[in-house]
Amino acid sequence: MDTHIGSVDGPALAAANGTVGCPASAPGCPMASTPAQPASTLTAGEASLGRHLARRLVQVGVGDVFAVPGDFNLTLLDHLIAEPGLRLVGCCNELNAGYAADGYARARGVGACAVTFTVGGLSVLNAIAGAYSENLPVICIAGGPNSNDYGTNRILHHTIGLPDFSQELRCFQTVTCHQAVVTNLDDAHEQIDTAIATALRESKPVYLSISCNLPGLPHPTFSRDPVPFFLSPRMSNKMGLEAAVEATVEFLNKAVKPVIVGGPKLRVAKAGKAFVDLVDASGYAYAVMPSAKGLVPETHPHFIGTYWGAVSTAFCAEIVESADAYLFAGPIFNDYSSVGYSFLLKKDKAIIVQPERVIVGNGPAFGCVMMKEFLSELAKRVKKNTTAYENYKRIFVPEGQPPDSEPNEPLRVNVLFKHVQKMLTGDSAVIAETGDSWFNCQKLKLPEGCGYEFQMQYGSIGWSVGALLGYAQGANNKRVIACIGDGSFQVTAQDVSTMLRCQQNSIIFLINNGGYTIEVEIHDGPYNVIKNWNYTGLVDAIHNGEGKCWTSKVKCEEELTAAIETALGEKKDCLCFIEVIAHKDDTSKELLEWGSRVSAANSRPPNPQ
């Protein structure tokens, strides 16, 4: 069984010598450039906690740590900077550092951020909660108080004025899968290794607090380079696997028009290839849930689009909901993904495959069955049945194109995304911010190899700016295109500055429509109107002549096509920021439908007592 850490199926991204991520010689973000040393016995001065942590991060695939300095983490940051293969990326605030670690984990399989005690920890907390909801292994490192201050009656700065230092820890307990507070060297080695291993094993964030006086201290447990991790693979219970496959084969083989739908937990299970193998073997039509877009190929002939209830790709919902059996691999069913709980699905027709569990219809259920193994075994035994796909081909009508624009006609959002579609290649990736970009980007047809990320479960506006920083840093072989609304951008705009420092060449489409459009369609009010900014002027001010940056404001299709041509040509090595002026009521039809259904779900009256 594959034990690698990576994307959906990805191989390990870090070599044993730790040379990962951007090359050490790349300018922009401070980083030591000394060559990596072979494993050996270390001198007393080298055998420190800080060095051990830095080496561990490199070994598991972290090449960049997103950090905000504070007095409790400064010594630790010195050790991270000194580590070959590890780059310290200074962010403008902790929230964006957490979002960047989230984006990096999507690109590389694991991410890390470093903050200071409490004021930094509570600031990054929202981003860590988002990573938890999206099943991303993020290692959140907080510099803690001097070890001598624990257990005393002292009141420290960066606290709420009580001699209790556990507030930060207690806040992280509900949004991380493991917490460790390192206050002595004797068990620091074990605590650090356990925390990192747990993040990788559970695919969830962990919290690691390290007292500020410990990073530079030597200890015998750090006297040799750490041995690279070997994480014992989780194996299926063989009897359970056999029983689950048997029950599923019987269920599917008697169906007339079964289909398969991929969900977001395909990433956690690293089951993307096994999913496609099952599609190939079965001949079923297959779709993805919106939060699984980008996890499986959209170029396969049996792909029928995004299944999102009433706002699905045309003809997709009809095929899925009319099927007499549907296998969902790694789904998350919530109010957003079900369009206000309006799916037309029946439990007795569904097979739900989670990373470690299979439920067939109304029962039976099988535990300790790994999704990847299950899908692979199922592919060997299921009968080929192309009925649903043939039905899809019969009813399918190709999608129309937006009408041509008149000369200098105000730019429509559907025209913008027509041109975004033309920009996509296998060397691209798309980041979609919470809002109408969710719906417009879902309609993009991704070429083979094109990445795609958005934060559907948590849906925190502003996520995309930090996530773009982190994803672009981790996937430095791709040019990332981000679609961000003006309201979201106002939350986290500062770290465009960090993108420039790191010499990133992403393309940001800032959609300026004067407010929180997604919230307008759920429930309108004056609070959804925001102060308009001169967004290109703001980015120019952040640029301030340092780094490579190009901005443009476009109001019609002619200006848009010229801007895209410049961004892909003359300014291909620059961070390109294109402000798109759109009408405040110019939204996708999918948002109109989705917003009304979510509004209805939100406004249900209390049940009778």
Major beta sheet summary = 7 strands, mixed
Helix content: 25-40%
Count of DSSP helices? 21
Walk across the major sheet and give the strand order. Answer: 9-8-7-10-11-12-13
Which whole number gives the mean pLDDT? Answer: 91
Broad shape: globular
Query: What distance lies between the first and last C-alpha atoms, to the nearest angstrom?
Result: 51 Å
Low-confidence stretches: 1-38
- How many β strands by DSSP? 19
The value of Rg in angstroms is 25 Å
Q: Classify the secondary structure makeup into a structural class.
A: alpha/beta
Strand content: 15-25%
In short:
Belongs to the TPP enzyme family. The protein is an alpha/beta fold.
Explain the overall architecture.
35% of the residues lie in helices and 15% in strands. The protein is an alpha/beta fold and 609 residues long. The strands form three sheets. It has a seven-stranded mixed β-sheet with strand order 9-8-7-10-11-12-13. Strands 2-1-3-4-6-5 form a six-stranded parallel β-sheet, with helices on both faces. Strands 15-14-16-17-19-18 form a six-stranded parallel β-sheet, sandwiched between helices.
Topology:
Blueprint: H1 49-60, E1 64-67, H2 74-82, E2 87-90, H3 94-108, E3 111-115, H4 119-133, E4 138-144, H5 167-172, E5 178-182, H6 188-202, E6 206-211, H7 238-253, E7 259-262, H8 266-269, H9 272-282, E8 285-288, E9 303-306, H10 316-321, E10 326-329, E11 350-354, E12 357-360, E13 365-367, H11 371-381, H12 387-395, H13 413-423, E14 428-432, H14 436-442, E15 451-454, H15 463-474, E16 479-485, H16 486-492, H17 496-501, E17 507-512, H18 517-522, H19 535-543, E18 549-554, H20 557-568, E19 575-581, H21 589-602
Parallel strand pairs: 1-2, 1-3, 3-4, 4-6, 5-6, 7-8, 7-10, 8-9, 10-11, 14-15, 14-16, 16-17, 17-19, 18-19
Antiparallel strand pairs: 11-12, 12-13
Helix pairs in contact: 1-2, 1-6, 3-4, 3-15, 7-11, 9-11, 13-20
